Known about the structure:
The protein has helices at 21-29, 54-61, 64-67, 83-88, 99-107, 151-163, 180-185, 200-206, 233-238, 240-259, 261-271, 277-287, 303-315, 336-350; strands spanning 40-44, 71-75, 94-97, 112-119, 124-129, 144-147, 172-175, 191-196, 211-215, 227-232.
Amino acid sequence: MERRQPPVKAPGFRNLLAAPLLALLLLAACGGDGSSSPGEVTLTLDWYPNADHAGIYLARERGYFDEANLRVRIRQPSDPASVLQLVAAERSEFGISYENEVLNAAARDIPVLSVMAIMQHPLNSIIALKKSGIDSPEELAGRRVGYAGQTFGTAAIDTVLRKAGKEPSSVEKINVGYDLRPALTSGRVDAVVDAYWNIEAVELAQEGFETNVIRLDEVGVPNYNELVVVTSRSFAEENPEVVRRFVRALVRGHRYALEHPRAAREALLEANPELDPETVEKTLELTVPMFRDPGEAVGYQDPEEWRRYVRWAVKNRVLPHRVEVEEVMTNRYLPEEARREMKDQQAERAG
């Protein structure tokens, strides 16, 4: 059976240069898909349902939303770049986005708030075909590297090269848009950045291409939360208990995925039957362990890591200016036991 092509996946870092606040206000004035009932909310994904969202679908399948007295509509975006606009305008009470997008939104006075981390480490990576011989940052020198057209990709490559003792000018950077895989497999470029090691690398392998993967947080780019759950600041202020119940249900879903990966597979395939079961199996093997860092609680966002990332992003012009982290992210909606667990772990590390 021919599978429907999924929407184009925007990479983990897409700037929000074209999201003026006026457009958000117009969206809000037009009404739309937002829910008028605090117990009925919409969650807009960042892409089509995939392994990154397994904990979300488990929360629904296991009845955790129901137990939280929430009716949650999970929607796939018609335009992945519009998620934060929908959330800021309260046409979607919650959305899945990226740490960098949340920071870019804050830098432009777009009132969104990250309330939970789904992925506490980067998924974005550098991927090369094995036959290229590129398996370390040093071997990027003198090669062509494709990126998705945003400043993050070029900044990441420059950082990785400097860390490896190479000049950034030694690499030819080519804007290939979202055609990362075709650019790589056709030989147009020797490597790509802005591709996910848990998704694109698996899909390339399924297509018969052996790859080498270089994870960015291991070669100089500061750690960041790849995927986060966002809401608007006004919705959080006016409906703190709804946000708290929603986050608690999601934390339970992600914990269950960690303990029952087979259940995660079934929930995801039920949510998106068009996914290839073998690909789902392999992507989940890589993805589910990322729902919790060994030193952190599920959903926790480390403020100091956010601050380190902001410093790097401003220095490398990924962000236009400094952003106050406390204004764009919070852990206060996490379950009490998760916050207590983090305090105990932090005390132990300090101790």
